[in-house]
């Protein structure tokens, strides 16, 4: 069993289940009973591997964690309540007041807000570098840097940096690389092969089965020597290569309480089974739409790493062997045209999410990035005339028919403006 989809469908070889069930069960229980008080004592002291309380661990959640670790070839996985929980748990386990992380402004808006507005006041310094110029990453790292953080395909700028080179630079400085692989998952980008130490994923998206449930994953690829991470020195002494996962379980993850609900974990295991197929279809649809949009006279720019015109195309081709992702952006004349376009759509949904089975459209500047001023939005590459499409798995002709409705509405709006 070597192929990704086969492994995703069948799970870990040799595993048996109660009653021979091919799926489930869902252990929807908060607490777990022990036969003897000495066993509870041992479980709390870490001398007995057992579930005691679902905020700390749960068998259904563990099933998801182990299946993701198997697929990713990872050392360990912790499932959490959302993608944001995956990012916040990871940063809080590694960094703290008086330290810094090196990242880019090309990030999901809430991630940028987490770093600046939530963790900033707790004393974390956020340093921004240009990840298309790895030398600027090297220049930003110093003795207080605790992590380099990036997205595999940035949302919504769709930049793909040379992650392998950035990882090499970070490792030369004894710093781990955290990559948000929400847009790629281990199917499109096996992050371990490119030197990523920790992959964080919003499993709310592709992984859940196409936006069925909210969740997040923290994947330790087992590359980094955690003795080099100042906050994990004691954990590294006690738990060796498992130090990062152990530190999460014994402190940050347990104490923050952002655990995944067992029922969500069950649905996300089901989602994993079909993930490869859905991503393949979503990527094929996105490439088709990107090429089609490029030929529309109303469109000033189309951004998609799969297009030869994308500045990230060459790197994306090297890193993403199975497809260029399911998001594209395109620009019309202005915000008004964007709104007229969106309002005319009948198949594509006006909704804020990515990697649903349904194609979704959003005007990022007025939504996810609305809390940033014009200058900040410009620095983040979020223009007022830009629309983002997260392309689903529908029949591509239906999507094109719908986009044609959008363009017709833009034309009518322009004519009405001329008449007025
Ligand atoms: N990372 C990326 C790249 C995202 O696009 C999102 C959400 O859209 C998140 C993280 C946060 O995920 P969640 O909504 O599951 O917290």
Explain how this protein is built.
This protein is of the alpha/beta class. The protein has 15 helices and twelve strands. The strands form two sheets. A seven-stranded mixed sheet has the order 1-7-6-5-4-2-3, sandwiched between helices. β2 (100-103), α5 and β3 (125-128) form a beta-alpha-beta unit. α9 crosses α10 (243-256). It is globular. The N and C termini lie far apart (66 Å). The mean pLDDT is 96. Bound molecules: pyridoxal-5'-phosphate (PLP). Residues 82-84, 108, 111, 151, 155, 180, 182, 202, 204, 214, 216, 354 line the site of pyridoxal-5'-phosphate. Pyridoxal-5'-phosphate is lined by residues 82-84, 108, 111, 151, 155, 180, 182, 202, 204, 214, 216, 354.
Properties at a glance:
420 residues; alpha/beta; 7-stranded mixed sheet; 5-stranded mixed sheet; 15 helices
Q: Give the termini separation.
A: 66 Å
- In terms of DSSP E residues, the strand content is 5-15%
Low-confidence stretches: none
Unique ligands: pyridoxal-5'-phosphate
Global morphology? globular
H and E order: HHHEHEHEHEHEHEEHHHEHEHEEHEH
| pLDDT averaged residue by residue | 96
Q: Summarize the biggest pleated sheet.
A: 7 strands, mixed
Number of strands: 12
Strand order of the largest sheet: 1-7-6-5-4-2-3
């Amino acid at each position: 069993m070597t192929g990704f989809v086969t492994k995703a469908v069948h799970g870990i070889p040799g595993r048996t289940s109660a009653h021979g069930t091919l799926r489930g069960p869902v252990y929807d229980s908060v607490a777990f009973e022990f036969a003897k008080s000495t066993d509870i004592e041992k479980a709390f002291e870490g001398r007995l591997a057992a579930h005691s309380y679902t905020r700390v661990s749960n068998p259904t959640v563990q099933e998801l964690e182990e299946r993701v670790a198997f697929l990713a070839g990872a050392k360990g996985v912790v499932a959490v309540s959302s993608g944001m929980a995956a990012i916040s748990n990871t940063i809080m386990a590694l960094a703290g007041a008086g330290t810094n992380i090196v990242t880019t402004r090309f990030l999901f808006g809430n991630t940028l807000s987490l770093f600046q507005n939530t963790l900033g006041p707790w004393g974390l310094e956020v340093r921004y570098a240009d990840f298309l110029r790895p030398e600027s990453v090297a220049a930003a790292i110093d003795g207080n840097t605790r992590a380099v953080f990036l997205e595999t395909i940035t949302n919504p700028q769709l930049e793909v940096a040379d992650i392998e080179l950035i990882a090499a630079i970070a490792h030369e400085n004894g710093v781990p690389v955290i990559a948000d692989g929400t847009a790629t998952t281990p199917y499109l980008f096996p992050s371990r092969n490119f030197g990523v130490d920790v992959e964080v994923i919003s499993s709310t998206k592709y992984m859940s089965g196409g936006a069925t449930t909210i969740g997040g994953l923290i994947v330790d690829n087992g590359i980094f020597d955690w003795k080099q991470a100042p906050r994990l020195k004691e954990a590294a002494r006690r738990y060796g290569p498992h130090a990062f996962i152990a530190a999460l379980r014994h402190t940050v993850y347990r104490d923050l309480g952002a655990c995944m609900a067992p029922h969500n974990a069950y649905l996300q295991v089901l989602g994993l089974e079909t993930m490869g197929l859905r991503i393949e279809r979503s990527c094929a649809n996105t490439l088709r739409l990107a090429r089609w949009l490029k030929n529309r006279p109303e469109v000033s720019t189309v951004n998609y790493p799969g297009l030869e015109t994308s500045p990230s195309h060459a790197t994306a081709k090297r890193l993403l062997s199975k497809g260029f992702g399911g998001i594209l952006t395109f620009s019309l004349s202005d915000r008004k045209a964007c709104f007229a376009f969106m309002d005319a759509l009948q198949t594509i949904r006006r909704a804020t999410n990515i990697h649903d089975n349904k194609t979704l459209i959003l005007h990022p500047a007025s939504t996810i990035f609305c809390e940033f001023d014009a200058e900040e939005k410009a620095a983040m590459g979020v223009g007022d005339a830009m629309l983002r499409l997260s392309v689903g798995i529908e029949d591509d002709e239906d999507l094109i028919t719908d986009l044609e409705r959008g363009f017709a509405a833009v034309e009518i709006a322009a004519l009405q403006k001329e008449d007025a």
